[in-house]
Amino acid sequence: MRPxxxxxxxxxxxxxxxxxxxxxxxxxxxxGNNYGPGYVAFPPFNVWEEGEQLCVEAELxxxxxxxxxxxxxxxxxxxxxxxxxxxxxxRGVWHRQERTFGSFSRSLTLPYPVDPEKVDARLxxxxxLLRLTKHESARPRKIPVKAE
Length: 148
Description:
The protein contains one helix and seven strands, in the order H-E-E-E-E-E-E-E. 15% of the residues lie in helices and 36% in strands. Strand 1 (45-50) and strand 2 form a beta hairpin. The chain is α+β, with helices and mostly antiparallel strands.
């Protein structure tokens, strides 16, 4: 029986997907979905790892928990959706309005699968902190060595 046509590409496929993610991130930073140079995606994310958890921090000033939706899909896709209401002065005239408002959605490919049942989300002082636990399949396993 002949092996599948693309069986030799399996190790390379993972590298190509990683390259694609890096290129997407690079173009998002430069062009920001056609908003021009200097555009920063909203909300901005910080991501770091602490032991068995992945921490994601997002700046969301002026939002309440009721204005947010957080999803983990496909094991390693994080999506944050929400809506920031416009500020309207009671008796004033706008001279400058730089803070954006309206609906937003931002997705992030996480570096490894996480357990969607073990996510802790806290919103304090306009900063959302998510603690996502590594999925069992992403944790390192010690392999026993047998001697003869």
